[in-house]
Amino acid sequence: MLTKNITHLGLEADKVLELFAQQANCGVEPIDFCLGISSFNPFDYVDVPLTRPDLRAHTRYGEFNGQLSLRKAICNYYQEKFNYDLSPARVCITDGAMGALNAIFAMFAEPDGEIILAEAHFPPYRILAQIFGLHCRFAPLNDKYCVDVEQLPRLITSKTKAIIINSPSNPHGAVLSVQELEAIASLGVPVIFDEVYQALGFTNQPVESAISFSDRHFIINSFSKSLAIAGFRVGYLITPPEYIPLILDVKATLNISTNLLGQILSETLLNSWDDLIEKHRAMLTQNWLLFKEVSSRLGLKLLLEPQASFFANIDISEIGQNSAHFAVNLVRDVVVSTMPSIDFQKPDPGFLRLNFACPTTYIEPGLQRISTYLKEHCQ
Question: Which residues are in the Aminotransferase class I/classII large domain (predicted)?
Answer without folding.
Answer: 57-370
